[in-house]
Amino acid sequence: MALEMKVPSPGESITEVEIAQWLVEDGDYVEKDQAIAEVDSDKATLELPAEASGIITLKAEEGDAVAVGQVVCLIDTDAPKPGGDSKKASGDEGSGGDAEKELSNKDKNSADTNEKGDSKTEEPSKSSTPSQSQDSKTYATGTPSPAAKKALDEKGIDAKDVKGSGRDGRITKEDAVNAQPSMGTPGNGSRGESRSKMSMLRRKVAERLVSVKNETAMLTTFNEVDMSAIFALRDKYKEDFKSKHSVGLGFMSFFTLACVRALEMYPAVNSMIDGKEMITYDFKDISIAVSGPKGLMVPVIRNAENLSFRGVESEVKRLALRARDGQITVDEMTGGTFTITNGGVFGSMLSTPIINPPQSAILGMHNIVERPIVRDGGIAIAPIMYVALSYDHRIIDGKESVGFLVAVKEALENPEELLMNNNVLKALEL
Q1: Which of 149, 220, 222, 428 counts the most CB atoms within 10 A of its CB?
Q2: What's the CATH code of the domain at 148?
Q3: What's the pLDDT score for residue 294?
């Protein structure tokens, strides 16, 4: 019996996926629950497991966009497993002699036929040899069609720089569409190039980022944070914290809890636009941007307002590992009311992060550099981080955005009082 495997729904609102890679070949024997393909949706890359054991027949190619519910392969569940005790087309011993005789007779006949055929083989006529290929040029050679000329004019490409594939060398519309502008006079080094198809996830991310730029009134405000207090706490307690909780005391817990505090003070930053209405949430689902093998992933820390330093660090580690290993699910990246992105891990000093739709704001962290600052009337060297808040000015005013970032700055520069309630050991659960 041939089992039809259909594309399951990877999540709400997703209508199609793309076959990123087949993990098996056509005609392979697959076991039940074995991963047979990787499929890209606009939210994540997921593995497609076999629904039964048997011989698989592929019905879609890599790179094909297939609708949810469409048949992508067949599994013959009645097919025997290779390497079993079942006798393959070997036949009985009694009939083996007759089969051998038949094969020998066929070989003899085919040999006679070949000998006769060879004697009748004729030399190809000289008139059909490649030496007489048509190299002549006509008036149409290098002339673009009207549609091709329009396409070339839009690209700013001269027709003489395009080789025509049409009749008599005429430049077709397809030639014009595929034509690339000149890269200048070639140098002496390598001039190679490569093309690769963007994944559905990457294409969707690109579309969403462009839509954000076009559909929102996005502004960015900046501030700087003196990280001295956090450095002192980490230097003093990070070893005890790690030994007790099996997770490091990083910066993300401080920033996450500082954002939770600021979101409570400025609820408009924790809001979204839905048509003509503004939705404000009383919970804080913090999206954390992490870099994975498939590109940027944004898993969500649910109800961050209920988590301690240990809870945040454990959740960040869990989500980062799942994203790195390609095990992150759509559900783990769905939702989120506010996003934190850390470009500092790659060395970024300053940036304007793009809002993660449909959210209304995103906080950008950057690298930490020792800089001279004024402290108590004197010049001091301190570890400084620039922070940036991009926000949708349609629902977040300048007062709220600036106030939010100042609240984050205050909490990070005085974490013992504002984030730990003057009880470090209790806050760190030591």
Answers
A1: 428
A2: 4.10.320
A3: 64
| Marked catalytic residue, from 26, 98, 282, 397 | 397
Q: Give the amino acid at 328.
A: I
Of the pLDDT bands very low, low, confident and very high (cuts 50, 70, 90), residue 69 is confident
Distance CA 74, CA 60 (A): 11
- In total, how many domains does the chain have? 3
Q: Which of 107, 161, 240, 393 is catalytic?
A: 393
Structural domain span for residue 13: 2-76
Whether 373 maps to a domain, the answer reads yes
Q: What pLDDT is attached to residue 13? A: 59
Q: For residue range 307-352, what is the model confidence (pLDDT) as tens digits? A: 999 999 999 999 888 877 777 777 788 888 999 998 888 888 899 9
Whether 376 sits among the annotated catalytic residues: the reply is no
Whose structure tokens read 């097919």?
79
Give the separation between CA 111 and CA 117, rounded to whole angstroms: 10
Assign residue 46 the CATH number of its domain.
2.40.50.100
Rounded to whole angstroms, the Cα distance separating 249 from 289 reads: 18
Which of 366 and 69 is assigned the larger pLDDT?
A: 366
